Amino acid sequence: MTTTHRRVLVAGIAATTLGVLAAGSPATAADWKNAVTQRGNQNLTTVQLLSFNDYHGNLEALPSMQLAADVDPARTVAGGAENLSTKLSELRAKVGDANSLTVTAGDLIGGSAFISGMFHDEPSVESLNAMGLDVSGVGNHEFDEGTAELLRMQNGGCHPVDGCYFPDEPYLGADFQWLAANVVRKANGQPLLPATSVKTIAGQKVGFIGMTLEETPTLVNPSGVSSVEFKDEVQTANAQAALLKQQGVKAIVVLLHEGGMNPGTYNSCTGISDPIATMATQFSPEIDQIITGHTHDPYVCSIPDPAGQPRLVTSTAAQGMVVTETSLVINKKSGEVDRSRTRATNHLVPQSLANDPVQTEIIAKWNTLAGPLKSQVVGTHTEPITGDSNGNRGIETPMADLVADAILDNTEGIGAQIGLMNVGGVRASLNAIKYGEQEGEITYAEAFDIAPFGNVYVALDLTGAQLKAVLEQQFVSTRSRQMLALGVSDGFSYTWDPSQPEGSKVVASTLMLDGNPIAPTDVVRVGTLNFLADGGDSFTAFSAGTNRVGGSGDLEGLVKYFQTHPALTAPPSRVAGL
Known about the structure:
The protein has 14 helices and 25 strands. It has helices at residues 20-23, 29-34, 81-92, 114-117, 122-131, 147-155, 233-246, 276-279, 357-370, 398-411, 444-450, 464-472, 530-533, 554-564; strands at residues 44-52, 100-104, 135-137, 177-179, 183-185, 196-201, 204-212, 228-230, 251-257, 289-292, 299-302, 312-315, 322-331, 343-348, 377-380, 418-422, 441-443, 456-463, 486-488, 492-495, 512-513, 516-517, 523-529, 546-553, 575-576. The strands form six sheets. Strands 4-3-2-1-13-14 form a six-stranded mixed beta sheet. Strands 6-7-9-10-12-11 form a six-stranded mixed beta sheet, covered by helices on one side. It starts with 19 loop residues before the first helix and ends with a strand.
């Protein structure tokens, strides 16, 4: 799979790149040591913050891991645990470990590559422990397997079903702390995990507030998060910042799993979009930096706080391909951040770096367990089939249509006539050699990479009007990603008119099944994922469905489809206008 982070130009406020402030980072240890003194102010100290986001268990460095050409014109092959760890060590060497902190903005686990996801992301946590991660905000994917599993990830213990993978080495949990300030238990109103963490570094206190996006319940299986409530990000951060200040913490950083899109290169900010463009203007002036994620889009921005003062807003890409290095300059007497001297730079993590041998050993350990299953050939394709969650999730794609075909194939036995699949749930494409297979072969590991969430196929009855309502929810103006397209199965088609208002974009008269129109009162049986049927991604119109019946697991069904449909080609478009 070529992991290409494609770019859609989106409207957003014009956030300025920080010039020397943001884009220039001290290049050597001597530069760091002299960065403050050469300005003639001995009352300042510099804390190095290294940050990244959306790791998604991508331990293995694959040749397909690249940013899009408009983000990185050099198309540097980047990422993977061995190179990310080396890059972090290289950057820390400038200042020494005592002056550096490594933090992340969520989605370290969940939606993961085969090597981690197959083992409930214990490999991901082990690799991050070895990298020296200090603290992380939670992301929506931390909740993919529910709150109880997230707590196990934090605290350790054998998996309740699969047990301990290495009986002599039980899973001990994360050495770093996940923060979940805006995720509170319904029973008592207390955060599921700590809201904040205060680190003393270079003699200064730095406070971190960790949060996921409020929309998380719409992005994961609702049943897994039924015991908690997700609060407003801005209100939560501002309240926590006030509490930190009461504790004497003046340097405050938010680790937020939410972001925007930047139509520029990985180290620029040429017009950052909402939701972060607006949110950043609302966070308390007491907050000195906002480290973001979720969109897999890298940027280094300055967005004014409510007091009109410039404030860094940063993000990296995903899969360990980029690291942000921030020099957080703090006044030693007041404990306040000097934003005029604070700067940040995004660094690529090229795979040409020397591999960290500790990470190499971790990967080998888990690959031994994966065994022959990983490279087992389960199907073939004769041309590239693309369009996964790493690209534009707002358009119909061949890969999403292919998975919709697989859903229909696996749910026809329980009556389904149409298959629907969200593009965001398709986590990989079929367009590159990943696991040593021959060109055109599909391995079990590739199938897992496409469908890593452990969803279940379901079928349910919808009237034509209810089906149209589901399709209309591809566009929801209040959702962080307003447009989330659905792939559709062979035999079903319709026309989408983007010029029409929200709720009226599907041309009702164009809904067709096997060449026959679907009237509003007709009943059709639709196959999809339990995630969507439960209202995931804000597709709440599925709740009107009746006679719901469960089917096979999505990975099992996808493998079966590959095995019974050799020589796959890219499906043609089935939706006009989308």
